[in-house]
Design goal:
globular, 5-stranded mixed sheet, 12 strands, alpha/beta
Length: about 300
């Protein structure tokens, strides 16, 4: 089948990256900010202190984390030095993606949620517990380390641990682990605003396959451990707590491939869906790219 143009364009943008300009800092003041997943690339201007940040939000920097095409396709912002892609303002609220001097596609940015300035009862900024991925999707990263990090068995493409180390150098103190209770508290605080953000999709009648869906979506993931079954099952207390405190959320897990038995335990806890980190489709390449997980 023919691959849609915007899918190809998305892959190309993520491969080449987007060049930093001061315009990105201005857009970053009102859109979804670069979060704490450790997957963002950081321009030298940020490291030199030329990019503003919001201390009320845990010190998050005012750089966009995502852009969207008009058809709704979302692209993570990977800022790279000397990248051929650039965002330019065309006036009248229009932003355009350029390849060098050629206009390629109009892009839009999701408005920044107000809850990013809120904190849990113990004073933890919500942005250090939940990372917004688009209008309706929230992600929690815990634990934010991998057992293969700092070894010769690390997946060669993974920026998780290195990204977390860079965040620490930049003054963002993200907890290494977050308790199920704190996650549920954070989801409770953002629930109504997230529902209002997703209601437009419900009003449009866009199906998602979930019965009684309120367009509230939360995914939990974290760094790998040696035992794939324990890695998957460590999320059960989180799923059970969220289901008890904020049952409106559709819950998802992203983890290493595990046995059907572990998947069944997750489903019984209330999980709606699971994403397996297959990493590499080719078996031979998997042993080369992910030596630790392949062992």
């Amino acid at each position: 089948p023919e691959v849609p143009r915007n899918i190809i364009l998305k892959l190309d943008v993520m491969n080449w990256g987007i060049k930093y300009t001061p315009l990105l800092n201005w857009i970053g003041k009102w859109t979804l900010p670069a979060g704490t997943m450790g997957y963002e690339t950081h321009p030298e201007e940020l490291k030199r202190g030329e990019v503003s940040r919001n201390e009320e939000e845990g010190g998050l920097f005012d750089l966009p984390s995502f852009l969207k095409f008009k058809d709704g396709l979302t692209i993570m912002m990977l800022i790279k030095k000397d990248a051929p892609y650039e965002i330019r303002y065309e006036g009248d609220g229009v932003y355009m993606l350029y390849w060098n001097e050629m206009a390629v596609e109009e892009v839009v940015f999701v408005p920044r949620p107000q809850w990013l300035s809120q904190k849990t009862q113990d004073g933890t900024p919500l942005g250090l517990i939940l990372s917004p991925m688009g209008d309706t999707h929230l992600v929690t990263l815990t634990p934010n380390y991998c057992v293969y990090a700092s070894t010769d068995e690390i997946c060669w493409f993974c920026p998780l641990t290195v990204g977390q180390q860079e965040l620490k150098k930049l003054g963002i103190s993200k907890p290494m682990t977050v308790t199920p209770e704190k996650v549920a508290e954070a989801l409770s605080l953002v629930r109504e605003e997230q529902y209002a953000r997703g209601k437009k999709y419900l009003d449009q009648g866009i199906p998602c396959g979930q019965s009684g869906c309120r367009c509230l979506s939360w995914l939990i993931t974290g760094g790998s451990i040696y035992d794939q079954e324990k890695e998957a099952e460590r999320y059960i207390p989180y799923i059970e707590t969220v289901r008890q405190v904020v049952p409106e959320y559709n819950t998802y897990v992203e983890t290493q491939a595990c046995s059907p038995q572990s998947v069944e335990k997750l489903a019984q806890a209330g999980l709606h869906g699971i994403n397996f980190n297959i990493e590499v489709w080719d078996k031979k390449m998997f042993y080369q790219a992910c030596p630790g997980k392949a062992r």
